[in-house]
Structure formats: structure tokens, C-alpha cells
Amino acid sequence: MVQINSQFSAGNIHHHNTVDDKIVELKINNDYKSDFKQWFYFKANNALDRTLEFHILDADKSAYPDGWSDYQVCCSYDGVEWFRIPTRFENNKLVFSLSFEHSCAYFAYFEPYSYERHLQLVQQAGMHPWCEHQVLGSTIDGREINLLSIGNAEAKNNVWFIARQHPGETMAEWFMEGLINRLLDANDGVTRSLLESCCFHLVPNMNPDGTERGHLRTNAKGVNLNREWDKASQENSPEVFFVQQAMHDKGVDLFIDVHGDEGLPYNFLAGCEGIPRYDEPLANQEKAFKDNFKVATPEFQDTYGYPKDEPGKADLSIGSSWVGQTFGCLSMTLEMPFKDNANLPDIEKGWSSERCMLLGGAILQPVLLHFK
After folding, report:
1. Are 133 and 146 in contact (CB under 8 A)?
2. pLDDT tens, 42-69?
3. How confident is the model at residue 193, as a pLDDT?
4. Catalytic annotation on 273?
5. Rounded distance between C-alpha atoms, residue 85 and residue 72, angstroms
């Protein structure tokens, strides 16, 4: 009999029913005290040489049902190498199937990035002589809020990258791993030039509780961290509260908040044009950054993205808007797809962890030119 398991780090699924030992009916669990649901991650066992069809029920009630259109599930036999499986969104269900070549397989909304891998990332980076690792405080569940500072603390420019305010957007931490790897490469000329004038402050995972719990968007209190920046508190959003303290202490000259988008199959940057202090110099900086990013990698584009805010109408509870308004610097949100980059599609893997890491390294080129 097929057995379904999600009792591991970031796991999320409810086994509803199995029909004729061929169709496995599943439901995604909501984030704690929240209506958000879309992240799933589970393992199917005892299926060698069988073809199973999986039905995720009530997919129309997920946070972003439009995200199921043209979506491909991530699948892996060993939890390391992932490939894509086509899906159908029909009758309010997400449907996909697999002919099993091994007895078990993992399925996920995107390639998972576990809390254990996160801890290894910050520990290994913190051992590098260029890097300082600091624990800013604790989450509601008692996990570390990690900050990596790479470069000279007395440098003129303080560059901030944060990721995974929404824990189900795992591509964001894959991006951060690629960024960190390049920043610590002594043979990279872009890195060496940048670190002469910049100190990078990196929060690879803003929401470790949500990561471990298998949430899509919220922390252990059921709070969406990217709607807390104008009211952060130790009670409800310590993750934002402690990062804001560090920002005030160190200063911010450039800020990028790394996310994933369920619907749009592109990489793009959203600016903070709606904040009250947005002006022509900031608009010129934003345009130049995007133009330079397009030159650095064909994976980035600026044709498709979010509608722009009207002047003075930005939501200051959002991280990039709050930072831009508070520090008067270029402040943007980077979005990557859960699906694939439609401009450079990969039929086998789609938008993958490897491509996220490469994009993380590539963004250093426009950062370098921004401060020239």
C-alpha cells in the first residue's frame, strides 16, 4: 500500500484518501492561524514499478490559484537531484502522475531549502575570514535570526540582502547561497572590487520558523512578515524587529528583498516608486540598476512585473517600501518564478536551485556599477 509522509523539515501535506490504490488524494495544510496555503512537500513510499496519479484537492482555494496554470511539480528520488513533472489544473484539483523507478519519491512546490542546510550555510560562511556571523535574536519558536556581514565594517556603503520573509519561497535562499559563495571567492575580481567600498549584510532566512513548519507565507504566529515593517514587534514579528535594529545600527545604502512569485514566469525587480521620498535621482538609480542587471545575465528582464504604485501610495508595511522611505536609498524586491523563466525555458528542470544560485552571483555586477 502506498504510504504518504510529510513529517520532516518543511513538510506539508494531508493524505486525504487513496482510490483503488492508484489515485492518491491530498490536501495542503494552511499556515498556522492563516488562510494561506500553497507550499507542499511530501514523500510517497512503497511505489516501485507503479504509476500513481496524485490529486491535490481544493487547489482552487490556495493563496494563488492562478499559479497552478502551466506549473510543473518538482520531483526527486533522492532529495538532492530534482526534475519537473507536468500538471493539470482541472475541477479545482492539481493533478500529476509519476511512474516510479524507485520505491519512493519526494514532491515539492519548489526545491526545498531546509533549516538544517540554512544553519550549515551560515556556519560555513561565518568561518571565512571576510565574514562575521551574528545572531540578532530569537524567533517565536526559539530559532536563531542569523546575519552575515561580509567585508570591512568601516566601509563607506552598507548593502543589505534579505530572503525568505515568505518561507515557502525557497528559491530566495538558493539565490542567497549563490550570492554568498561569490562574495567569498577571493579569485573574483568583481567581489574584490566591491569589498573595497562595501560591506554586505545578509539575512539568508528571515523566517526560520515558517521554514520548519512548512508554511507558505507566515511565521509561527501566523503573521506575514512582509506586512510588519511599519509595526514590527518582538511579540508578533521579532524577525523584522531585530533586523530593523541592525539596519539602524549599521546603516543602509542599498536594499534588496528576495522573493518568489507564484504566477509570473520571469525574474524581475519591483521598485519603491510609491514612497513619499521617491524622486528623480532614485528613479534614475533604479533604471540603471535594472539595465545593468539585464547586461549581466539574460535570466533577468524588465518587461514583465508588478504594476507600479502611484506616487505617495506605497504600502509602508512592506519591507522594500519601509527601507526606501526610512533610509532614502535604492530599495527593491527581487522576484523569481516558481514555474520557469519563460524567456529561457528548461523543459527538464524549469527554474531550478542551480539557476537561482547563478542569478545570486550575477547580481553583484549591477551592485558594483551602482556604487561606481
Report:
1. yes
2. 999 999 999 999 999 999 999 999 999 9
3. 96
4. no
5. 5
**C-alpha grid cell, residue 371:** 556604487
Catalytic residue of the set 111, 228, 299, 335? 335
Strand 144-151 relative to strand 131-138: parallel, antiparallel, unpaired?
Answer: antiparallel
Burial (Cβ within 10 Å: 0-12, 13-18, ≥19) of residue 142: exposed
- For the chain, first and last CA: distance in Å? 62
CA angle 76, 81, 126 (to 5 degrees): 120
- pLDDT tens, residue by residue, 310-334: 999 999 999 999 999 999 999 999 9
Q: Which domains are delineated in the chain?
A: 3-108 (2.60.40.3120), 115-370 (3.40.630.10)
Q: Which residues pair with 113 in a beta bridge?
A: none
Residue with cell 542546510: 117
Which amino acid appears at position 191 of this protein?
T
pTM: 0.97
